[in-house]
Amino acid sequence: MTLLSAPVDAVPIDRLQRSDLPRLARRHPLVVIGGGLLLLLILLALAAPFYAGDPQNMDPFIRLQPPSDEHWFGTDNLGRDVFARTIFGARISLLVGLISALLAACAGLLIGIVAGYVRAFDNVIMRVMDALMSIPTFLLAIALISLTGPGISILIVAIAIPETPAVTRLVRSVVLGVRERPYVEAALCGGARLPKILWRHILPSTIPPLMVQSATVCASAIMTEAGLSFLGVGVPPGIPSWGNMVSGSRLYLAIAPLTVFAPGICLAVTVLAVNLLGDGLRDLFDPRATRSR
């Protein structure tokens, strides 16, 4: 999901009125479905302490119990409530995904603008980005975590670094096209300073494709966090995460399937919501993509 330039019939964000929202919702249902589902997941995760139990409370006398009125999803092999751990696991996955996407977007935006506008730095920066893209995300993340130790902050940085080159290449491609536009050349001839040109003419053109790419990065980061936690090198075992929940309960799949299915289904729904939102934003900002399909 990438956009190289803002089409002439795209929806201007700064001109969007409240009366346009119903029309946009009808024309772009993916934005409503994906955004609404993601918002619901975020609200459920934030309100977890008010309605979910203690995810760390262990009771060996109720190990691997089926769903009941007290434990909606049953209990795991240590007697912990699966529903509470699933809800609190959403907080970790969403936190890692959203912050990793934000870091990658900010870093890629800055580096991409410099590479696309300042020709002297373009070749050096892009060769560094190519080198980072040649390293598998899991391998680089595992290497960074092994050097510093497990932790949520380290995990976020380890996921954001491999995702930055893709954002950088996208922003650079947009800047290379925009910098040749007549209004940019007119601003240069009029004596406008470089910071003003970047802020008023270059940066606004990068926001729509950057938003679409950030949704892709967020979905990828959530999956990467789950995979690393499943392997035991992501979120520490004491913190509930969908990845380490599936890893710790996979041996009891035949006895208590919800211990695996509950976090797995939540992970799939979250990634689906983010991807739907990204596809909807792509269609919103580039209607020609919808017509071409």
Describe this structure in words.
The protein has 293 residues and is mainly α. It has one domain (29-47, 73-288): MetI-like (MetI-like fold). Helix content is 71%, strand content 0%. α1 (21-27) packs across α2. The longest helix is centred in the last third of the chain and has 38 residues, at 194-231.
What are the defining features of this structure?
single chain, 293 residues, mainly alpha, MetI-like fold, disordered N terminus
Order of helices and strands: HHHHHHHHHHHH
> Any idea what the CATH superfamily is called?
MetI-like
Which descriptor suits the 3D outline? elongated
User: Mind telling me which CATH architecture this is?
Assistant: Orthogonal Bundle
Oligomer: single chain
Helical content (DSSP H or I, runs of 4+): over 70%
> How many domains in all?
1
Radius of gyration: 22 Å
Low-pLDDT stretches are 1-16
Q: What is the tally of helical segments? A: 12
CATH topology: MetI-like fold
Output the CATH class name.
Answer: Mainly Alpha
Q: How far apart, in Å, are the first and last alpha carbons?
A: 14 Å
Major sheet summary line: none
**What value does the average pLDDT take?**
81
Helix-strand makeup class: mainly alpha
Quick rundown:
The longest helix has 38 residues, at 194-231.
Draw up the topology in text:
Elements: H1 21-27, H2 29-46, H3 48-51, H4 82-117, H5 119-133, H6 137-148, H7 152-178, H8 182-189, H9 194-231, H10 242-249, H11 258-285, H12 287-292
Helix pairs in contact: 1-2, 2-4, 2-11, 4-5, 4-7, 4-9, 4-11, 5-7, 6-7, 7-9, 8-9, 9-10, 9-11, 10-11
